[in-house]
Amino acid sequence: MFQARTINAEHKDLIHDVAYDFYGRRLATCSSDQSVKVFDLDENDEWRLTADWKTHAGSVWKVNWAHPEFGQILATCSFDRTAAIWEEIVGESGNSSQSKNQSHWVKRTSLVDSRTNVTDIKFAPKHMGLLLAMCSADGGVRIYEAPDIMNLSQWSLQQEITLKMPVSCLSWNPSFSRLHPPMLAVGSDDTNVASGGKVFLFEYSESSHRWSKAVTINAILDPVHDIAFAPNLGRSYHILGIASKDVRIVILRPSQKDAYATCPTSQLEVLEAAALVDHKSTVWRLSWNITGTILASSGDDGCLRMWKGKINCAALLSLKQSYLLSISTANYLQNWKCIAVLKGDGSGVNPEDGADRDKAVSAATTRYFKLGAISNPNHVTTH
Amino acid sequence: MAGGRLEVFWSPNSQDKFITWGSDISLYQVKNTSVKDDISSTHSLQISNSSRAYQLGSLTDVTFAKCLAWLPVPELEGIIAIGQMNGRVALTSVLGSGEASPLNGKEYTSKHNRQCNTLAWGLTDPYVLAAGFDKHRSEHGLILWDVTKGGNDSNRPFMETAFGDTVTSVAWFSHSHTMAAGVNNKQLRLYDFRDGTKHTSSTNTRAVFSIIEDPFVNHRIASYSDASVCIWDVRNFEKPVLSLQQSKAVSKISWCPTHHSFLGVLCKESTSLSLYDIQNANGVAAEEMEPIPLERGLILTDQQNETISSFAWHLNEENRLLYSTTSLNIREHIVVDRITLNWSPSSKLVWNCGKKILQYIDETDSVYTRFGDVSVIMRQRAVEGYGLEADFKPDSELMQDVTTRELWSWVDTCRKLAQSGNPLGVNFWGIRSALRLDTDGVLKSEVFHVPWNGVETAKISPVNVYRSEERNQALRLCGWPYDPESSILGPLLEKLQADGQVSRAAALAVFHMKIRKAIKILTRSGIQKNQVSYQLVALALAGFTDNRDTLWQQEICNMNKTALDDSYLRAAFCFLTSPSEKYEAVLNEIGMTVRDRVGFACCFLSDTHLSEYIEHLNRQLTKEGNLDGMLLTGLSSDGLNLLQSHVDKTGDIQTVSLLSLHASNLEVSKDGRMQQWVNSYRSLLDSWRLWTQRAKFDVQFYKGNPNGAEKPPQQVYVSCNYCGKGISVFSGTKGKLHPLSRNSPNVKSKLTGCPNCRNPLPRCAVCMMHLGSPLASWGGPTEHISKKPSINAITGVSGVTSKKTHPFASWILWCQTCRHGGHSAHLLEWFAEHSECPVTGCSCRCLNLDTIGHHIPVIANGHD
Prior knowledge:
The complex is a heterodimer of chains A (383) and B (864).
Chain A: E1 5-8, E2 15-20, E3 26-31, E4 35-41, E5 47-54, E6 60-65, E7 73-78, E8 83-89, H1 96-101, E9 104-111, E10 118-123, E11 131-136, E12 140-145, E13 156-162, E14 169-172, E15 183-187, E16 199-205, E17 210-217, E18 226-229, E19 238-243, E20 247-254, E21 268-276, E22 283-288, E23 294-299, E24 303-311, H2 313-321, H3 327-330, E25 334-343, H4 351-363
Antiparallel strand pairs in A: 2-3, 3-4, 4-5, 6-7, 7-8, 8-9, 10-11, 11-12, 12-13, 14-15, 15-16, 16-17, 18-19, 19-20, 20-21, 22-23, 23-24, 24-25
Chain B: E1 7-10, E2 17-21, E3 25-32, E4 44-48, E5 51-59, E6 65-70, E7 79-84, E8 88-93, E9 107-109, E10 116-121, E11 128-133, E12 140-146, E13 159-163, E14 167-172, E15 178-183, E16 187-192, E17 199-204, E18 209-213, E19 220-225, E20 228-233, E21 242-245, E22 250-255, E23 262-267, E24 272-279, H1 284-288, E25 292-299, E26 308-313, E27 320-325, E28 330-334, E29 341-343, E30 348-353, E31 357-362, H2 366-369, H3 374-383, H4 397-400, H5 402-419, H6 423-426, H7 431-434, E32 446-450, E33 463-467, H8 469-478, H9 489-498, H10 502-511, H11 515-528, H12 532-542, H13 551-563, H14 567-577, H15 584-587, H16 594-604, H17 607-624, H18 630-633, H19 637-650, H20 653-662, H21 672-687, H22 691-703, E34 812-814, E35 821-823, H23 824-833, H24 846-849
Antiparallel strand pairs in B: 1-2, 2-3, 3-5, 4-5, 6-7, 7-8, 8-9, 10-11, 11-12, 12-13, 14-15, 15-16, 16-17, 18-19, 19-20, 20-21, 22-23, 23-24, 24-25, 26-27, 27-28, 29-30, 30-31, 32-33, 34-35
């Protein structure tokens, strides 16, 4: 029986976020117990707790590492309406044995512009500079910049966008490509279906130095809990994973005719690639692997599910007969499928589980959504 | 209670008992099913995969029961108070008469016939029973009894209040003798019985049902009315702190006893339970911030016509709850905490399991291998030096990957052709360029009738073979013999046989009309490897005839497609049996490499068919993102489309970036896509800490670009402290130097002074010799040399293991903060044992200042 390895985080309340640094050697966790912990991978490949400190006066929702080029920097956001920037200080006090095992984190700044619960905070991709975006329950999306990367106590509010609904999550497009403008996606957990699409895409215009709304994804009407751009390693299109009542995958293709230079707000073709219902319950979090080829999601069914876009064989066969489809279109004929299921407690994995559901998804032409499910449908009651 | 209604309550007294209340009241005990005893027992219920509930006792006469409360006294396990329609409150034991207790059988009554709405045992004094009744004009609505009281007036209330009022719900607070009561469907009142019977405060609300106290925040209560649940702060009682609107009428609410401010709400006719995690701020923020509920829906049943009728949290076990359904099922459920997860660049997937534990898996786990994560393959390949070393290791995983192998053998062919100045090789052109298909060139080929070699030529007509200069070029790329004499065929076949590609060798021989050679190849390998199948195939080949009426043609025609599982042999027979120039079966043989299929086409297809076939194949491979197509397109803009398609499909940025090393002086290298791939791949190598590989990649990238336009300039110089002139051997050519810039390029000559002003260089802080002097062992604890390479200047140095042999050992190292420095080997030795600067009086923690120092590079022979 498979068993995942464990790290004792020992938080006193629910853990809301775990974040790896750029190298995957450091891990930060945050929790409702209002603290953040940092774990480092040592020479023996063991995770060691190197810092544990109280960060906020409320549940800490998210924690995020800056690119190491800027130093060892963490950003946190909390229910207490603030976000904070933390920097690791080494070797200023204490004896040497202690400083080797424990590091000290100091708050460089507190971002207090939000008047409500700050729901998410993320550093921008490195090539954009030391930039971060945070969003809050009052619908505010704020983008801050550290004009001087050596001075982390100075953050200027570059832009503030206000949406008409609470914002729950955001994601920067990590693409390196200069062929299209920087992009930021935000999601709302507004429960009112009638208020329209819950995912918004913003694009940065080099000419006006402003972020502006490029697309609202109207197909997603249910509350969105997490949103994640897939790392784009040279792909010609972007993939956005969305955690809502199911896992949605949306492909964003910059229209190739409009060069970025000539058209500042580029045209985006939005294709809904998949709606994956296997969790049969609310989906909370998403994460992509480094190449953006596998998506992991967690849901209220207590499981982690891995999704992979596989080339649709049937579609490929038909392609051989017809050359009418353009090259780029062919790439979207991927069939996203659940390739593995892990239980939240890290215990067993049931391979058939994944296989069964594959069939179910591909067979279902009319989808039947469930809002949730008991974690094990095999309960049998006998009187 | 109505027949379909089934309520559940966990015992307040023991962890494994609960009662159900439907048509009767039954007590159950939960046992783990690993204990395999009388599973068939009629009085047991399977409540989860691993547990079963066994009935211990029941009360059948509960027709008039309206409410009940379980006495929270561990010694008296089964005593419950049952409030009835007629105002009687009976104490009874679900264990029946088996429970000998003075309380068993006690009865309290209201003076008038009126319904008992609610019962609650005291928390500080468990023997005080509070009962709420419907109103009567001459009686109190809330009556408290002390059940321990004996004697004649034992039925006399201990306290009475709420005269003439209806009391629908009561709840004791865990501190002192205070309680909350819902009165007259319009008011919540707080009572403190130390202060007498008058209520201490009240608020007007319709939410008077099922008052419950938050077990973690004892000034917080919850209550409901119809479809709304209200949460109150009793210190500020005017209005609810939170109001949670439900879509249906609420039937039960309950705080989770193991989870901070976690409320479960059940609605009527619902298949799910709503869970509210009430968020609070503390400190200053708390005064300004209202609590916020985070809602989750927990679907408990997905059976048709079944809804949840009741639920109960387990008192001790985290997140465990019991629920009952309208189809009278009782089940257990563990509420899973929300899971957060993250995926590291080095393929570790981590998630939380509750509050205390993080779980992770990585590529070493069997489960992970099922994901088919391309990044794991790429990382492994990078570690093995993929694309940076001249040849693949014969046993490497890369050699197993036919497509990759074919791709690099094409690159290899091109490089060899380039040495002879062939434009195909120099420009990395593909077959399409060789055949001039990309310039709309017209093929003009001559037809040769090539006779069969090794069979009686009289019987078999020769085969039409097309030749032209363009076709020869294309054949060169395919690695096929291109001159009419097929002079390189012999060595080629020998090599294939040596590599174990017997069937391919045989097929190539057949395609060159050398049937005897093919038979020889097959028989020889058949004997060597003791494979009968090859010998049988050889026998079959020996009977070759092109007369379509013969038995051989007909039989082979019929059987070969399915009977042979080797695609090369199949192709060979297809070739032999196909009518003249109808070679589709061979050309569409997917098992043959593209190289051989194209080589075949270049030999046997007429000009029009050939160009059709090549274009067809090109489109198909480009669409598939199949790198085999690079042979057709070459490193052209079409090739880039194919590579883009490959990246889109597979995410394999590595192969395309490595190809760019060869294209760096071609036009395509200026394409934005190519640059994006290269940058992405470099960043990927950085995040895997494969800095050495990244640096090698960079070196090759710039080396291939002889113009050097994008070559990064030298970034650091060492200058003399006295005259400010550069002391580096090469620095003289670089013009003006910044006097403050210092660092360590090659100090190749043993240079201990400035070549310009003859003043000595600074001394090493450890050995006190002038820098540039030969490295001396300084007699310290030299055995433990830190594996951590560090200090700002030389982060690129990996795995310093021996100061004497390592080329960087005598390099000069500076701390950018305190400006002290010395020989790198000496400093590494020093910092292995110390955390402060070796200079007396300097307390700079030089090593710790560099955070990248924590990140040990991946050493080339493995990961981490």
